[in-house]
Amino acid sequence: MTHATPKAGHCIAIASGKGGVGKTWLAITLSHALARAGKSVLLFDADLGLANVDIQLGLTPVADLGAVVGGRVALAQAVLHHPGGFDILAGHSGSGALAALDPAALAQVLHGLRDFARDYDVLVLDLGAGVEPTVRRLAAFADRLLVVATEEPTSLTDAYAVLKLHAADAPLAKTGAGIVINQASTPASGERTYATLARACANFLGHTPPCLGIIRRDDRVRDAIRRQTLLLTRHPNTPAADDVAALAARLL
Measured in Å, how far apart are the chain's first and last C-alpha atoms? Predict the structure, then answer.
């Protein structure tokens, strides 16, 4: 694969090998935490086939990525401002056409996104789960890749696949990729989960991506998602909220 598109200023992509690990929730909550830290943030729902950032937040965008790609609106016209202090570029759920964008069209989208995102301190990409070519291209576009995994063995296997392919795709993969363990039953359990994944990377990839954060399992997360609200607003002093805030501070 070739990756000639220039990078955005400070772009963080959030990926996972499988669905159900809390990737989109983390992208939203991290964007909010970064905004609360004083940064201007654009969250791009880059899950081109199953976008759901707007659904998790109860938003009804007038325009989305599909309208941008179709040439019906400019990128700036598709951006929503969330009361949490960050901006959102909604995806286009259920669009197989977007998920299968050809390389030239995807490069054009990224070129426009790179230019537009220069007005922001941080660009957060919520990638689709898996290792499809479009997902890999978006991951390689970012300055830093956060691979989300849980304690489930299948999640670790799939997370390793993401890290392996990213190492082949991105020249800065050894320093640009990191691991976030989500839904950890305890901090110690999260550390053990990370250690398992780190050993596989060390043995077979020749490098060990750092652990950027361990986010504890927290029932308040489910409540915030169900009510389509931000965790840091609804339940600001909870374990998961503290852990995401610590992740944001580490990234900054």
Answer: 30
Residue 1 lies in a domain: no
User: Using CA atoms, how far apart are residues 206 and 40, in angstroms rounded to an integer?
Assistant: 36
The strand pair at 11-15 and 79-81 is best described as unpaired
pTM given for the model: 0.91
Q: Is 120 helix (H, G, I), strand (E, B) or coil?
A: coil
Identify the CATH number of the domain in which residue 106 sits: 3.40.50.300
143-166 as b/e, with b when 16 or more CB fall inside 10 Å? bbbbbbbbbeeebbebbbebbbbb
Mapping DSSP to helix (H, G, I), strand (E, B) and coil, where does residue 41 land? Answer: strand
Q: What would the pLDDT profile of 121-133 be if each residue is shown by its tens digit?
A: 999 999 988 898 8
* Residues near 134 by beta carbon (within 8 Å), at least 6 away in sequence: 48, 99, 100, 101, 106, 128
151 in a structural domain? yes
93 lies in some domain: yes
> Quick one: CA dihedral 128, 130, 131, 132, positive or negative?
negative
Within a domain: 4: no
Range of the domain at 244: 11-251
**For residue range 29-78, what is the model confidence (pLDDT) as tens digits?**
999 999 999 999 999 998 876 778 888 998 888 887 778 877 888 888 88
Instruction: Count the domains in the chain.
Output: 1
Calpha distance 151→199 (Å, rounded) = 15
Instruction: Give dist(CA 142, CA 124) in Å, integer.
Output: 9
